[in-house]
Amino acid sequence: MARVTVENIKDLGFTFQMFGLDNESSLELYIQDIIDDAGAILEGVIGSTTYNSASSPTAGYVKRAEKCLVASELLQRRINRVLNNVTASDDKISTRNEEQQMQRYQDEAEKLISLLTGDTDYSFGIVKTSHFEETSGPGGLEVSG
User: Fold this and answer.
1) What are the tens digits of pLDDT across the range 6-62?
2) How is the chain split into domains, by residue range?
3) Burial of 67: CB neighbours in 10 Å, binned 0-12, 13-18, 19+
4) Which of 27, 105, 111, 140 lies at 20 to 30 Å from 72 by C-alpha?
């Protein structure tokens, strides 16, 4: 059974409009599906005993890790939606803020999973690629070109 609820995730600021859904009911089903997947993945990684623990702080770590996994997935889907709706006339489209927020959720989930498993090298192993070459600009600012 999932540790987080649809309300926990909606409280993070996700709305049905962000995903092109028709209403709140559609969003709730959409989120619940992601919660179910994230719960199954997390339980597989940390084990059933830890996942189902009611003791503190373990239960809190599990819930927060699951919340981070769900939020990360929702942000990835949001990024995909934005990028799929780009047209040739959209000169300036950026998902940088969403990508950074998604990365923060992933980092937090990894830290919590490491705490729960004792594996300090745990990582989701995401590789990010781009056809843009990144360089440093003045003052160490990141510049894409």
Assistant:
1) 999 999 999 999 999 999 999 999 999 999 999 999 999 999 999 999 999 999 999
2) 6-144
3) buried
4) 140
